[in-house]
From TrEMBL, chain A:
Family matches, as Gene3D superfamilies: Aldehyde oxidase/xanthine dehydrogenase, a/b hammerhead (3.90.1170.50), Aldehyde oxidase/xanthine dehydrogenase, molybdopterin binding domain (3.30.365.10)
Disordered: annotated span: 1-27
Domain of life: Bacteria
Official protein name in the record: Xanthine dehydrogenase subunit D
Molecular-function GO terms, alphabetical: iron ion binding; oxidoreductase activity
PANTHER family in the cross-refs: XANTHINE DEHYDROGENASE, XANTHINE DEHYDROGENASE SUBUNIT D-RELATED
InterPro entries reported in the protein's UniProt record: Ald_Oxase/Xan_DH_a/b (IPR000674), Ald_Oxase/Xan_DH_a/b_sf (IPR036856), Ald_Oxase/xanthine_DH-like (IPR016208), AldOxase/xan_DH_MoCoBD1 (IPR008274), AldOxase/xan_DH_MoCoBD2 (IPR046867), AldOxase/xan_DH_Mopterin-bd_sf (IPR037165)
Organism: Streptomyces venezuelae
Domain Aldehyde oxidase/xanthine dehydrogenase a/b hammerhead residue range list: 36-142
UniProtKB/TrEMBL annotation, chain B:
Any one Gene Ontology molecular-function term assigned to this protein's record: oxidoreductase activity
Keyword Magnesium among record annotations: no
One Pfam family from the record: Fer2_2
PANTHER family linked: OXIDOREDUCTASE WITH IRON-SULFUR SUBUNIT, XANTHINE DEHYDROGENASE IRON-SULFUR-BINDING SUBUNIT XDHC-RELATED
Keywords for the protein's UniProt record, in alphabetical order: 2Fe-2S, Iron, Iron-sulfur, Metal-binding, Oxidoreductase
InterPro entries attached to this UniProt entry: 2Fe-2S-bd (IPR002888), 2Fe-2S-bd_dom_sf (IPR036884), 2Fe-2S_ferredoxin-like_sf (IPR036010), 2Fe-2S_ferredoxin-type (IPR001041), 2Fe2S_fd_BS (IPR006058), Beta-grasp_dom_sf (IPR012675), Diverse_Oxidoreductases (IPR051452)
Designated name of the protein: (2Fe-2S)-binding protein
Species, as recorded: Streptomyces venezuelae
Superkingdom per UniProt: Bacteria
Record domain 2Fe-2S ferredoxin-type: where: 1-78
CDD domains: fer2 (cd00207)
Amino acid sequence: MAGTTTGIPANVTQGSQTKGGVGESMLRPDGTLKVTGEFAYSSDMWHEEMLWGQVLRSTVAHAEIVSIDTSEALALSGVYAVLTADDLPAAKNYGMEYQDTPVLAYGKVRHHGEPVALVAADHPETARRAAAKIKVEYRELPVITDEASATAPDAILVHENRGDHHAGHVPHPNIVHRQPIIRGNADEAAKKADVIVKGEYTFGMQDQAFLGPESGLAVPSEDGGVDLYVATQWLHSDLKQIAPCLGLPEEKVRMTMAGIGGAFGGREDISMQILASVLALRTSKPVKMVYNRYESFFGHVHRHPAKLYYEHGATKDGKLTHMKCKIVLDGGAYMSSTPSVVGNASSLSVGPYVVDDVEIEAIGLYTNNPPCGAMRGFGAVQACFAYEAQMDKVAAKLGMDPVAFRQKNAMEQGTIMPTGQPVDSPAPVAELLRRVKARPLPPVRQWESSEGADVRALPGGLSNTTHGEGVVRGVGYAVGIKNVGFSEGFDDYSTAKIRIEVINGEAVATVHTAAAEVGQGGVTIHAQIARTELGVQQVTIAPADTQVGSAGSTSAGRQTYMTGGAIKNSCEIVREKVLEIGRRKFGSYHPAWANAELLLEGGKVVTDGGEVLTTLVEVLEDEAVEVEEEFRHRPTEAFDLRTGQGNGHVQYAFAAHRAVVEVDTELGLVKVIELACAQDVGKAVNPLSVIGQIQGGTTQGLGVAVMEEIIVDPKTAKVRNPSFTDYLLPTILDTPTIPVDYLELADPNAPYGVRGIGEAPTLSSTPAVLAAIRNATGLELNKTPVRPEHLTGT
Amino acid sequence: MRVNFTVNGRKQEADDVWEGESLLYVLRERMGLPGSKNACEQGECGSCTVRLDGVPVCACLVAAGQVEGREVTTVEGLADYAKHRQDAHPGGGCASGACGTSLQDAQQWKAHSAGGATDSQTGEGTELSPIQQAFIDAGAVQCGFCTPGLLVAADELLERNDTPSDADIREALSGNLCRCTGYEKILDAVRLAAARQGEVV
Ligand code: FES
Ligand code: FES
């Protein structure tokens, strides 16, 4: 095309809108690959002559390691390497916030399932058999499993010599972090209360249980480095932790995102990345590593189990007077993201309500239980479970409708958080509750059709143990508040590289970021944003890798906001540069180049009046424009360590649920009939995936309510149910219809007005289900999950 | 040992198979057919669902030796299987050998094809079965790890029952876990595929 443009549009037409932009329901670009089985997940990696890595894990929770004998394992034919901590090439510890986690245990093991030794062999079964032949001698130590055993004056310290920056502020070395929040005077305000309600709540340990196991392939490279293909939520955070453990500069560790089978926070921490790399460097062969489900339960951090102690007061006319609470989060053996979870739990402990006088304390413990860290909802989930139970209790004591009571106390735009930070964007809490309540209820006793009872619709389903004699219905409500993005002064940013060029006679944009597509649909909206901003139809999403700047984590509901913002930012600069070229080439032919507002639409340069000046193809010819830019959200600040005051959060997300349950009081079985959700999403960039995210998050909350829990033996700190046989997940039979109603009240500070979506629906669905079960049975039920014995008193 | 069986209409043989190796391992690691997924390897999640002589099974629970002389259909062969559903010999509808993935092709599977979610390389033009298309259209795919198993199970349901009720769908898919979607859109997808099938007839 070079040299053929005239610069004078042959005919002036209306600019055609680009299809598939922001706000349209778009199908996933990777959908076809995923339905044909061609999409390469991290466990699908394959390389000629690759070896299989296998971890040997600790069989006890707390012990000194007396000796490790690897000789028998090494002697097995097909075994290429057997390594212990002594064989590690460089740094022995890693960690996101603080490097307290050993790659392989040395000296001590601090939790059940901790990695102790590593094997590489030519067949996974050989590797497993070799691992079983490693002899480890332990001298067991007493286990620390709860607040009492952790903070006893003579308690054994989980970490003897803490060097992290929280160590100086905590009341006991077995407390990872403590965040109090004091605002107003709770004791004074309590005097105005007509009713005071106290409650004690227990939140069980939930697992992310993503279906795609931890896995990947490490390939040693000729320069002595390693190419790593793994599924992770944040490539650059991994890289920072991996390189020092391999003793390599970051440039020699090249990471490429492999297909991710779900994450939900469980891939924020390192799992097999360092282990496979160490084996690959040691054997000079590609090493594939795939955790089986049993190992997966030990291979990632879980949601913090919690104990929550709450007190609320209210006046007769239904106004909350004060709130006091103490939240104890069990962080397990290593720090992971416990300090941030503590910060979230304390700063969001009041919920989406106006309470001026509060006395809050949240702590995170070091124990010998499994390490806990990030999971969808991140500290806000546990608090929501407790404050929503409290709201129902207070309302009941006042004889008020639970929804009306919540609405009366609901925060709105302008409300001051307990941290002193004003809520400066829409906060439609009362409206979300109104919407779920206004929805017609599903018909009662729906198992009784004209053709008789359909047992499949009863609690217990096909087991045919009842025909509905003991079944009662209950309805419950809950609402929650979640912060979006990284808080407390973290320098949170994302990077996007955008390129535009002419390929086969068409303008094509390429979006290159390091953002993890964990299933949430980031890849779809990245293309939508590029289409909207650049007016091109064809968008290529380059595979995520460390050849481009950090995108930050796919977590905290931040990726649409942050990487979406980075793509928008970079596209705006690309657009300017493209128009610059256009002005240079054609500016003298048409005055609009100089004095009109110019847009890119439908592959053309258009004036705001709709006049087409030229096409992108004619502007670009064989030039390419490429821009790599970062996006930052507005800065936040740390919470004061004594008062908890500070503008710690960027944005809030709100969701409300109404649960309708049927409970068989004789069998102790619950069937959730419907779990309606209303959420403010700010702006639905892709409505189809917005609904999918809300339904998925809702179902994870439902799981906690009625079945999901990692059970840790309190005497030995051993995990009792590390399998899908014993850790129960909701199936399609356990999951009701989930009608979704979303609002789009733009956040004026966010790109397109978006609000993080993925996390908020996980908060309120659990307390809504619990409220519904309480409503049906009249029982107290202060624990997750609700088990049959809790309902039948057996 | 050596195992001979038919996969997606093609004769395959696997050598040096260990006693105790599962069908899932043989498909994924020896045949280069990683479409069947490995989420639990203990029969609890359904991610590895394939059809063995037409019957849906968890490939992780089938010993490789058990498939000697039998026919296996995986998600990779689903479109072809659906196309040849009317044939007397399900899955064998490709005598010419033009369908399915050859062992050689399959073993081209390399790390470098990783994660390639590319808007302009969406596999457009790939022929899909009605249930595959419906999963895409209904938004039933998120991370997609559960998808292959669900597709095989749902396709078998629709073969048996072209107008399934919601209760039928839930029952048929109750062995398949999905952690991402909340299942609502999976129900939508099966309803959509059933409705489209109805229109065609
Ligand atoms: S992998 Fe076979 S059922 Fe889970
Ligand atoms: S498990 Fe991720 S889409 Fe079903």
